[in-house]
Amino acid sequence: MIEKISGIRGMNDLLPEELKLWSFVERKIISLFNSYGYEEIRTPILENTSLFQRGIGEVTDIVEKEMYSFTDNLNGNSYTLRPENTASVMRSNIEHHLTYNGPRKLWYFGPMFRHERPQQGRYRQFYQFGIEAIGYVGFEIEAEQLFMISKLWSLLGLSKSWKPKLYLNCLGTLEERSSFRKALIDFFSIYKDVLDKDSLSRLERNPLRILDSKNQKIKDLISEAPEINQFMGKESLKNFSNLCNLLEERSIPYELNSSLVRGLDYYNSTVFEWVTPFLGSQEAVCGGGRYDHLVEMLGGKPNGACGFAIGMERLVSLLKKANVLKVGSCLDLYIVHIGSFAKIKGLLFSELLRAVGISVKVDMTDASIKSQMKKAGLSTARFVAIFSKEYLDEDAVVIRPIHAPNSVKDEKIGFRTGQEKIKLNNVIKYLQSELSQKEISK
Ligand code: AMP
């Protein structure tokens, strides 16, 4: 026997059953983003490694340990599978002068790649929906983005107790952050003997990341450490309190968390994370904030920007746990047949139905009618049509609703009753009228 080749650990196949749930969520998210005036952008999965080194920061977990990088044999360049998409969108924005005529609101969806230790909710290939609002300064756009995310939880059907919780922090301006950084180095240097290996290595290179530590000893120390708001100037404080006021006006609950620094270097001012207790240790569903200096760091003209990313796998897991995912019918009709003559008739007739926008799957097997019916029942189709010589001789087929809510189960084949014999030249009209009624009652 030839050995089977399996997929790569942490890189999952998304199978049709799962993707039906994803499509439901994707449609909701895309229509929400569009309703706020965001436009889609798609950038390549592969970028020059230097983009992420410069954009995300050399002293971050992503750049230090998690990037899939390789040297191209043909030209010796180093390329990286994107670990996130903000740097790529900013690169594209600079390259194509996207903000030449003013601010731009963009959204993306696609796979990201990080060489992390795979576990539930943490994968090496995972999908993010994201938003980048480029050319916007001020707290208003931040507020609008948080309104939008809060609305998303409701649109997806999450009740109050299931909604992720919003944590907010302000990292201040570059200058304020730099004074804070210095104060952190001074503080943690006193406790070098308490710091673990990770924190020690962060101390000189990126002390803010110590605040991210999950080690309880370090967490205790952090509670004594200086806080960013001690270093924030009037302007930063005012902006942040304006944002908080707007959230209160919209009754969006939030909690201030001075340890929230986010793992990427490009953030300044407002940062946020939406966290849920229902996903074990991988609790962040969405994260983002302001990154006013990224465009400049990547060689563009200074331009304020703010955005966020939602992890699809974690979001779908949460929705499954909350039991709010509804998969609508993807198919209008499933055609079954008795005998090869009827199968060909069904095949030809399905083309006429698709031509008027009715989606159809024809059973192509030679299985018994009972087993074809079973498959129709398991499909997402709303109706089943039975093609058999007996009825075709009368220019007719039999049509039945699948999963009709008030009909009686037909014990013989496990189907719901309500079947009708319909003349072939009336099938389109009949289905169109039935399908539109179902649409209204949905
Ligand atoms: P980040 O780009 O790290 O701020 O992540 C944004 C969101 O992407 C997180 O809140 C998660 O929902 C999701 N995410 C990040 N890393 C992973 C991963 N390795 N596997 C699955 N989802 C992830």
Topology record:
Elements lengths: L15 H20 L3 E2 L5 E3 H8 L4 H6 L1 E4 L6 E4 L4 H10 L8 E10 L11 E10 L4 H17 L9 E6 L3 H17 L6 H9 L10 H7 L11 H16 L4 E3 L11 E8 L8 E7 L3 H4 L7 E7 H10 L11 E6 L1 H16 L4 E3 L6 H10 L4 E6 H4 L3 E6 L7 E2 L4 E2 L3 E4 L3 H15 L1
Helix pairs in contact: 5-9
The structure holds adenosine monophosphate.
The site of adenosine monophosphate (AMP) has 17 residues, from strand 6, strand 10, strand 11 and helix 11.
Overview of this protein structure:
The protein has an eight-stranded mixed beta sheet with strand order 1-5-6-11-10-9-7-8, sandwiched between helices. Helix content is 38%, strand content 21%. It has 15 helices and 18 strands. It is elongated and about 90 Å long. It has 442 residues and is of the alpha+beta class. Helix 5 runs parallel beside helix 9. It binds adenosine monophosphate (AMP). The site of adenosine monophosphate has 17 residues, from strand 6, strand 10, strand 11 and helix 11. Adenosine monophosphate binds next to strand 6, strand 10, strand 11 and helix 11.
Structure at a glance:
This protein has 442 residues and is α+β, with helices and mostly antiparallel strands. It has 15 helices and 18 strands.
